[in-house]
Amino acid sequence: MSFEPNLVGFLCNWCSYTGADLAGTARVKYPPNLKVIRVMCSGRVDPNFILDALARGADGVLVCGCHPGDCHYVEGNYKCQRRLPITRMLVGEMGIDPRRVRLEWVSASEGVRFGEVVSEFTEEIRSLGPLALQEWAFDPAAADAQLAHQGGEHA
Amino acid sequence: MPKPKLGLYWAASCGGCEIAVLDTELKVLEIADFFDIVFWPCAMDFKYDDVRALADGEITLTLFNGAIRSSENYEMAKLLRAKSTVLCAFGSCAADGCIPGLANFTSLEAITRYVYDDSPSTVNPEHVRPQPVWDVPEGTLRLPQLWNTVRTLTQVVDVDYVIPGCPPQPDQIKAVVDAVVDILKNGKPLPPKGTVLGANPRACCEECPRKRDVKKIRAFVRPHELIPDPEICLLEQGLICMGPATRGGCGAKCVKAGVPCRGCYGPPTGVHDQGAKMASAIGGVIDSTDPEEIERIIAGIPDLVGTFYRFSLPGSTLRRRQV
Amino acid sequence: MPKVNITVDGRPIEVEEGSYVLQAAEALGIDIPTLCFFKYVKPYAACRICVVEARDKRGRTRMVTACNYPASEGIEILTRTPRVMAARRLNLEMLMSRCASMPVLTALAGKLGIDQPRWGTGTDTCILCGLCVRVCDEIVGAQALGFASRGIDRFVTTPFEVDSDACILCGACAALCPTGHIRMEEAGGRDVVHSEITLGPNAAIAVPFRQAVPNAPRIDPDFCVHFRTGGCKVCAAVCPKECISHDDVERFEDLEVGTVVLATGYQDFDPTPMKQYGYGRLPNVITSMEFERMNNAAGSTGGKILMENGKEPGAIAILHCIGSRDQNAHPYCSRVCCMYALKFAHLVKEKTSAEVYQLYIDLRAFGKGYEEFFHRILEEGVNVIRGKGAEIVRGGKEYPEGTLLVRCEDTLAAKFREIPVDMVVLCTALEANHDAKDVARRFGISVGADGWFIERHPKLGPVSTTTDGVFLAGVCQSPKDIPDAVAQGSGAAAQAMSLMIRGEVEMDGAYAVIDDEVCSGCRLCNDLCPYSAIGFDETKKTSSVNPALCKACGTCAAGCPSGAIRALHFADEQIYAEIEGILS
User: Fold this and answer.
1) Long-range contact list for C68-71, CB < 8 A, 24+ apart?
2) Is B321 touching A (CB cutoff 8 A)?
3) Contacts of B294 in chain A (CB under 8 A)
4) Which residues contact A145 (CB under 8 A, 6 or more apart)?
5) Is residue B194 part of a domain?
6) Chains in contact with B, where contact requires at least 3 CB pairs less than 8 Å apart
7) What architecture (CATH level 2) is domain A7-149?
């Protein structure tokens, strides 16, 4: 079975979420891999959310906001535009391909474009393969086994 | 009434936390007087077997400093957890991973190779490496085994309280000791489990005397490139000061000395990942809307993850670099 | 000025000392004829027709000119004594010896009982009253006219008797000339009438067009003498209510409002780039708006349907969907064209005997009574052809001069047609204003791909927008006809009213709060808020959110490095729970 990427999307309420809605009502076809979380503004997207999604098993995170200058909250998307590059740099330096975190501008009228963005992102992550974080969770059984293998207690 | 029993232990740590306990000056005598110290390898001659001989929960309070990065650290963490009524992660290593946690930016294999082969002062033509178990005529020798990933104490055992800091400031230790004595002597209720003790609920900025204004950052500088204005917020001057994303409690010592906060007290209340929060905060105040200029400004942050996660990598959301 | 008492023909009147007795007579309704008097320039006493007798307190009588004789205490003015009438006749006869046939003089001669002037009848047309010279100097301020020569050779002319640039072509001299001696003529490449002919009256002060709102005159600074020379202001002197101000300038006013209804409308699609229709190139190819204007009783042709040569057309083609439903222009339907095109056909049938051809893709007569109207048009004998007009070309030699050929495919008859007509009306698309995006940005709303403002919800919120208190009405939201626009406008007004009547704003429960116990006062959030909802308390050294200003975008919550800011909706815990939920 081919790898189906598990993607999380943070969509701003006014442009991108409405754009995604439009994609739906317009019956635009795009892969079902993206799971959408609505936020009021792309400026609400805390890098913590992105890292949390990656740590919890997402293979990629897509953040969509209004086009620059079109933000419902005047300039929230500019904040996002500045936070995302830092986040991508951070993610990259943590050994994760920064392509797994993507920022796109999708307006309320761009239902078709939303479909295209999701399709393209899904394909990109599919080609990057699953993101399996090494030794993220602590495995007490393995640690206990290691202790036993060493012959028990330290002096 | 028998004296309450106190244990102190160091796992993967530098020993600074132990010094900090001694830095409480005369208070240490009060501690020794009030408690029956049953385990303190740094200062007194105890063996692990002495601890094993105790009943479960017999130690009233254990202050555990150091991260968990070897099988020995792990074993002692489990042992002390079982023997202690209250286990307290003492210092930044136990709480967030701290400097030993920076090992998570690389791999055990890389570290070992460097130490036993590649470092300029090493001569090891036969590539000798430490072995966990080695048979000699006298018997079997055992060495603790290092882990590839450093863990915080909280990640491996159940921890009751956290006292952050690298090291926890003596004044804060004194205050905690006073509180503990008060609880034990006068039957005061325990604070809720998970409480951070000996620190400020607010971020380091609260203790910082510098003048703060609204922030707009156009370029980042490194400390050697600038003689900072003594009055003004260091972040406003372009230095990456971790103060806003770091729990207070230290008294803003570094900042008062003109050095940007390095973040040793770990994330403040309500923040899980110190580095990501700092990234978010700094991203918000970069003064540009031009994507290329933004990239240029961000590229000016020296060693982004090393700076943001200097004291908290193992305890952060991603915990380690993928290598 | 002190007041004095005088009598005119025995009737007492109190007037200002020094005012002219002509005005006193006028106030009493006593007529004194004059040729050279104009209220707004200084009296000149050139024509001497206004002679009267003035008797002072000592009983001495003098013949004076009423127009410039100042009133003084106790004088008696006699306007109709035999001596006065004789003097007037004499003066008029002398004027007529110079220019006898001027209507203004012959009329006066009739009143004064002169049959035949004693000193002959001259053929000149100027009576040298000097009104023109004085108005040009005193009112217009151009000083383009003056007297030349002396005695019987005296005449009015421009400096050095050449066409002068000092003349600003205002026409004040011609307007005041009592004999018609001065006329406006186009000469030397200078137009008397402004080249940009407006469809309405083009006086310097006029109501811009009928049905103008507000229906009040305005001054056109391009025409007004005052704005060219600094003089005149006669209109201000005339207006009894002192309504006229020459000092008003365009100014921007800041209005504090609680609600806004956007009704910015649309702009007409310009069919010039669609070369196949020849708009701007072929004669008698006009847009629907131009045709509509022509049909207006106040329009350029007074409501008559005329071709460029002033004749009635014999056949008119009305082409639908020019720029609408066209992948090369606008893909959407402009909605109003079908019905106004049918109305045009009706008007043509009503006003002329022309043949009418309707070329359509689909007829969308969807409204109340619209389908019935369509059938009425059919009964009136309008030719309705299902096929979009493809091209307009000039007719060849076999057609009368000026014939246009409209080419189309009649899709019902499945055949190609070439229809000879005299006039073509292009039903151009409604398109969004070119600056709709800027307007949208200013109000924090969005525009769709076609440039129309996006409503909050296509079904549940067709009048409101994503910005609270901003509503949409009319075509700025999408093409619609008048009843629909009125309906939406009423809805928008009602929604706006319902907010205003309440007098207070109901706040959303969603806003950000800063935990005083956690905020360290780093001030990183202060500049994040575009609504300036975050303030810094210098005494407490913490920041706080004003919930009335907060719009709950959450940017500050994301940016607070200490975790002190909490968004009440879309809170961190909620989002983390969502992430956990969708990834488990």
Assistant:
1) C68/C20, C68/C43, C68/C44, C69/C20, C69/C21, C69/C22, C70/C17, C70/C18, C70/C19, C70/C20, C70/C21, C71/C4, C71/C6, C71/C15, C71/C16, C71/C17, C71/C18, C71/C19, C71/C20, C71/C21, C71/C24
2) yes
3) 81-82, 85
4) none
5) no
6) A, C
7) 3-Layer(aba) Sandwich (3.40)
Q: Domain check: are B168 and B246 in the same one?
A: no
Residue ranges of domains in chain A: 7-149
Report the alpha-carbon distance of residue A51 to residue A94 in Å, rounded: 11
Instruction: List the domain range (segments joined by +) for residue B53.
Output: 5-99+148-186
Question: Distance from B236 to chain C by nearest Cα, in Å?
Answer: 10
Which structural domains are found in chain C, ordered by start?
3-112 (3.10.20.740), 131-176 (no CATH), 267-431 (3.50.50.60), 436-502 (no CATH), 512-583 (3.30.70.20)
Q: CB A93 to CB B321 under 8 A?
A: yes
Nearest CA in chain B to A79: B284
Q: Same domain, yes or no, for B74 and B15?
A: yes
**Does B168 share its domain with B271?**
no
Of all residues in chain B, the one with the smallest CA distance to A154 is B72
Cα C21 versus chain centre, distance = 43
- Looking at this predicted complex, what is its ipTM? 0.95
Tell me the pLDDT of chain C (584 aa) as tens digits: 789 999 999 999 999 998 999 999 999 999 999 999 998 999 999 999 999 999 988 889 999 999 999 999 999 999 999 999 999 999 999 999 988 888 999 999 999 988 888 888 888 999 999 999 999 999 998 899 999 999 889 999 998 888 888 888 888 888 889 998 988 776 666 655 543 344 444 578 888 777 788 888 888 888 788 988 888 888 898 899 999 999 888 899 999 888 999 999 999 999 999 999 999 999 999 999 999 989 988 777 888 999 999 899 999 999 999 999 999 999 999 999 999 999 999 999 999 999 999 999 999 998 899 999 999 999 999 999 999 999 999 999 999 999 999 999 999 999 999 999 999 999 999 999 999 988 987 887 888 889 999 888 878 889 998 788 899 999 999 999 999 999 999 999 999 999 999 888 777 788 999 999 899 999 999 888 887 889 899 888 999 998 888 888 999 999 999 999 999 989 999 999 999 999 98
Give residue C202's identity as a one-letter amino acid code: N
Alpha-carbon span A99 to A61, nearest angstrom: 9
In a domain, B315, yes or no: no
Chain A residues within an 8 Å CB radius of B156: 138, 140, 143
Cβ separation A8–C466 shorter than 8 A: no
Binary contact (A134, B282; C-beta < 8 A) = no
The length of chain B in residues reads 323
pTM tops 0.90, yes or no = no
Residue of A nearest to B284 (CA): A79
Same domain, yes or no: B153 and B281: no
Q: How far apart are CA C216 and CA B219, in angstroms?
A: 59
Which CA distances in Å does B200 have to B60, B204, B248, C145, C520? 25, 8, 5, 92, 10
Nearest 5 degrees, angle CA B278-CA B283-CA B286? 125
Q: Are residues B85 and B173 in the same domain?
A: yes
Residues of chain B found within 8 Å of residue A143, distances taken between Cβ atoms: 71, 74, 156
Closest partner CB to C576 (pick from A44, A52, A110): A52
Final residue belonging to a domain, choices B186, B212, B246? B186
CA distance A24 to chain B (A): 31
List chains touching A (3+ CB pairs under 8 A): B, C
